[in-house]
UniProtKB/TrEMBL annotation:
Domain spans labelled Extradiol ring-cleavage dioxygenase class III enzyme subunit B: 8-273
The keyword Cell cycle is annotated on this UniProt entry: no
Protein name: Gallate dioxygenase
EC number: 1.13.11.57
Record carries keyword Oxidoreductase: yes
An example molecular function term from Gene Ontology annotations: ferrous iron binding
Organism: Acinetobacter guerrae
Gene3D superfamilies on file: LigB-like (3.40.830.10)
Keyword field: Dioxygenase, Oxidoreductase
CDD domains in alphabetical order: Gallate_Doxase_N
Taxonomy, superkingdom: Bacteria
A Pfam family matched in the record: LigB
Length: 278
């Protein structure tokens, strides 16, 4: 049977991809961030997962506000990079495992999650910003992806509890898949940041670390928070933390934090954390 071996939480700030493409890995302003991903990349290289489930939000690259689904699962043999206005990044398409994706889709619907299914849609920086820091991509990516887009842009949003329960349903889906696969679940976005409005540039370091502690040891407490709670504590865009809760719900109750890197050098608390199932 397939099994989930761990989870990753990562920021998906678009400037990470820009800095990567411009070769700024040794730049003093960026080196602490890039170095913070190396232990996770080493772990992935050692464990060799067959698939990453990428939980992300689309930034109006493939969906727009006239049709913006709550949960959207991609099914396809490959997913290309979205052009977000600055030209295509020099990254190969991400391969997909259609049989695994279709199984997850059917399992989640049977678990009463009403999904939107998409095909032939490119993926934006929600997926592609952190991926080259985690996986090598030359000449090709080492495994496949299952893209799962969550609405954190247009209200009404799914609740924190609903996202956590979605992760639990993903766990059931993976563990019912008959092929012997190793899977890692990646929750993207967050942590505290606000990129517009009166509180532009807002961060809350204390809350970020409290969130990480609760995510590991008491995620149910986080499911009690409203969207207003997340926004007040971490800024408008920190509501993306509900995607980390989806990742956490897919893991065992008991997990080990193998690595964490927290770097606040811009308006966003850029974070990378690795969990292993205990």
């Amino acid at each position: 049977m397939a099994r989930i071996i761990g989870g990753i939480g990562t920021s998906h700030v678009p400037t990470i991809g820009l800095a990567y493409d411009k070769g700024k890995q040794e730049d003093p302003a960026w080196k602490p961030l890039f170095d913070g991903y190396k232990p996770i990349a080493d772990w992935l290289a050692k464990e060799k997962p067959d698939a990453l489930i990428m939980i992300y939000n689309d930034h109006c690259s493939s969906f727009f506000f006239d049709f913006y689904p709550t949960f959207a699962l991609g099914i396809g043999s490959e997913f290309s990079v979205a052009d977000e206005g600055a030209g295509l990044r020099n990254l190969p398409p991400l391969p997909g495992n259609v049989e695994l994706q279709a199984h997850i889709a059917e399992s989640l619907v049977n678990d009463e999650f009403d999904l939107t299914i998409f095909q032939d849609k490119p993926l934006d920086h929600g997926c592609f910003s952190p991926l080259p820091l985690l996986w090598p991509h030359k000449p090709e990516w080492p495994g496949c992806v299952v893209p799962l887009a969550v609405n954190v842009l247009q209200f009404p949003l799914p609740t924190a509890r609903r996202c956590y329960r979605l992760g639990q349903a993903i766990k059931r889906a993976i563990e019912s898949y008959p092929e012997d696969l190793k899977v890692v679940v990646v929750g993207t976005g967050g942590l505290s940041h606000q990129v517009h409005g009166e509180r532009v540039g807002f961060n809350n370091i204390e809350w970020d670390h409290e969130f990480l502690e609760l995510l590991q040891n008491d995620p149910e407490k986080l499911t009690e928070l409203t969207h207003k709670d997340f926004v007040e504590r971490g800024g408008a865009e920190s509501v993306e933390q509900i995607m980390w809760l989806t990742m956490r719900g897919a893991l065992n109750d008991s997990i080990q934090q193998k690595h964490v890197n927290y770097y606040l050098a811009t308006t966003t608390a850029m974070t990378a954390v690795l969990y292993e199932n205990a």
